[in-house]
Structures are given as structure tokens and as C-alpha cells.
Amino acid sequence: MPTLPKSIIWARTDTGGADHVLFDDRRGLTARGVSMAAAPLPYSCHYELATDEQWESARLTVTAEGAGWLRTVRMERALGRWRVSTAEQGDLDGALRAAGHPPVGLPGTEEPGRLDPALDVDLGAAPLFNTLVVRRLRLAQRPAGEEHRLTVAWVRVPSLEVLPVEQVYTVLDVDRVRFRSGSFTAELTVDPDGFVRHYPGLAQRA
Fold first, then answer.
1. Which of 153, 43, 125, 126 shows the shortest CA–CA distance to 90?
2. Which of 82, 105, 83 is CA-nearest to residue 93?
3. What is the dihedral of CA 161, 77, 123, 106, to 10 degrees?
4. What radius of gyration do the chain's Cα atoms show?
5. Which of 14, 48, 78, 148 has minimal Cβ neighbours within 10 Å of its Cβ?
């Protein structure tokens, strides 16, 4: 496994946890990361991501694991279509019920064709993935007020269910972007390379 030259750590502000990513962004993005969170139940989430040179997502593998359960989803985009495969051990729903939470969906998707419009993937609660859109659309070079509406392949955590979701990015300044998905809105502060510094309600760069 090759080494990667850069690294970022975010501290979670919505729950106990952190996200650490190693990456190379010289020709597209290659990244390996791990997220840890205390809610809705303690889990860790390991991910590997690759884009092409235009920052269009090409591959994502995610493994989420907690006490008594483990799930993996693998996604690959080729010729404009997504292929999704999954694996599961243990009983996540049982662990959620024991912690007083409702059960969740199965990992992956039964309709991968619904993901085909997506050029970007988004792993829930992982600030790295907002950079994919910021860099691919070169939002730092766009005029304030410009809005971009797009479909992404969103991976929920900890279930690893994959859904096509509409997201909206609005340029506010060279270092600020408004992110909206459904009823959720946040104004993200990014560094000169498009990586999140502050994600209100979720994470702060450490």
C-alpha cells in the first residue's frame, strides 16, 4: 500500500469522535481515512476513495464496525454507471435497538441505476467528501451567489445504505460555501485547496 503525503484531522462537534484522512491531491484525489463517532452508537468507519484527474469519483470502499456487527460497501463507477457490492456480519439493527434507536436500512442499494447521474460520492459525517464538489466545480474561482444543484451518491452511516440525493452548493466567497441537502443547511469554511476547515454542527479542523 503506497504512502500518502498529506493528512488532516477533524474533531467532531456534534458527538464524541474524530476523522483522520491521509491523501494525495496532485492528480485528482487518492485518500484513506477513518472516522470514529460515539452516536448513534460507538463505531469506526474506514474508507478508501479515488477520483479521476477531473475529480469525478471513481471508487469508494467503506467498512463500518461496532460491537457485534460489521458492514462493508464497495462502489465503482465506469462508463457512466455505478456498481455496488456489500457484505455484512453480525446484527447492527440489534445493536441499535439495544441502544434505544430504530433499525436502519440494509447496506448498499437495490437500484444502482438510480445512482448513475452522480459524479460525486458523499460519506455521511465525513468532511473530506465536500471537497470533491468544491474542487471538481472549482467553486473558489466562481462568482459569489452562483448555485450548483447536483445528484450525489450518499452513503449513510453507520448503515452504509447508498442513496441518490440532491445537494446544492452556493458560492459565498473564496473560502465559504453554503451546502444544502433537503432541509439541512450549513455554511462551510474551506482552505485554499478546498478542504473543510469548519463544518458548523459537525466538525472543526484540529
1. 43
2. 105
3. 10
4. 16
5. 78
What is the Cα 85 distance to its own chain's centre? 17
Which segments of the chain are extended strands (E)? 6-12, 17-24, 30-37, 43-51, 57-66, 69-78, 81-90, 120-123, 147-155, 162-173, 176-181, 184-190, 196-199, 203-205
How many angstroms separate the CA atoms of 12 and 200, rounded?
10
Instruction: For residue 144, give Cα distances in angstroms to 62, 118, 141, 169, 173.
Output: 34, 24, 9, 11, 6
- Rounded to 10 degrees, the C-alpha dihedral 36/193/196/34 comes to -10
| DSSP code at position 161 | B
pLDDT 10s digits, 22-48: 999 999 999 999 999 999 999 999 999
Residue from 140, 142, 91, 150 nearest 117 by CA: 150
Asked if 121 and 60 touch (Cβ cutoff 8 Å), the reply is yes
Question: Is residue 121 within 8 Å of residue 130, measured between CB atoms?
Answer: no
105 pLDDT exceeds 90? no
Does this model's pTM top 0.90? yes
Provide the pairing of β-strand 147-155 with 120-123.
Answer: parallel
Cell for 62?
A: 467503506
